[in-house]
Amino acid sequence: MVNEFWRIPLLIQNHFFRFLSTQPRPAMRFHTLSALSLIFILSLVVSADSPQRVPLPVADADAKTQAEMKPYTELLEHTEVEMDMLPIAGGQFLMGSPESEEDRGDDESPQHKVTVAPFWMSKCEITWDAYDAWGEEMDQRRRELLSLPKTPRDIAVDGVSKPTEPYTDMSFGMGREGYPAICMTQHAARTFCKWLSAKTGRYYRLPTEPEWEYACRAGTTTAYSFGDDPDQLDEYAWYAGNTDFNYQPVGQKKPNPWGLHDMHGNAAEWVLDQYTPYETIKSTDNPLQIPTKLYPRVVRGGGWEHDADQLRSAARMPSSPEWKDQDPQVPRSIWYHTDALSVGFRVVRPLTEPSEEEKKQKWENTLPVQLDPVE
């Protein structure tokens, strides 16, 4: 129904002109001016609040029930970038770690049962290839070079913010093609998701902290998705114990039981939540700790520069203002964490897309509002 709202002004216009044709000529001028003004206003309101969504056709991307969900490959139109998406069945799990777990953090208690709804999750972390399609507008540059007309999705992405120019290469020379995008703020990761939603016609966002841990554990209750022995990490993760002081291309290590790569290590991953003590969390059904301040927010999974204990399934990492220490800009950028060289993200797509009101009140709700300074 949402996708049909754009037709309303046109329907009003058609009915009006039918009515007008039956009226005496003296009344026509007044009615014409009044009604066309109304139509114009309605067009602005409707198109702004409920833009037409025309999803890019992708095999196996559509499902109405959990049983119908299949893996699919999302395409970034006008580029060669693809993103593999895996179905994650909904369910209930015990979030946090038991007191018996070695090297656990105090912020992983108390353990608590959480229910999550089904969703798709990107098989790997978002790469620079995908991130630059947004940040550098590589998709639109290529479309223009090929003299291709704009699709409804191209028109939609015009309304999504882009990051400002970084003061340096944010990969810091560690590699770009096929490597995870890093050094972005949560705001930047959230905005990428808005762009991806407009770009594909399907709703994407960051995972919640419970969704992330649920997918990472993949039905396990051990410290890692492969067991309790950190000596096995070399098979599954890039971390301080096996990297040469830099990250690695995504998807090289063994996946977890649900097929997700690099849930442990390589790039730690943003989630939607404010970093909050578990004892203060009351909701257990698809919970989200809506951010009300910039710091701290939650990053999960650990990265290439972290020790084994920080890669555990239950390990939590709070963001910090120190992640901007090298940023020379005044005020400091809303887009970049210059000192978060091991922080990236992956995306999810819920089976049931929330309403626009639900997005506003919950899934896309975050404070303070982030705006670039006015020059």
TrEMBL record:
InterPro entries: CTDL_fold, Sulfatase_Mod_Factor_Kinase, SUMF_dom, SUMF_sf. Residues 84-324 form the Sulfatase-modifying factor enzyme-like domain. Coiled coil: none annotated. It comes from the Bacteria. GO terms for molecular function: formylglycine-generating oxidase activity. Residues 352-375 are annotated as: Disordered. Pfam families: FGE-sulfatase. PANTHER family: FORMYLGLYCINE-GENERATING ENZYME, SULFATASE MODIFYING FACTOR 1, 2. This is Formylglycine-generating sulfatase enzyme. It comes from Stieleria varia.
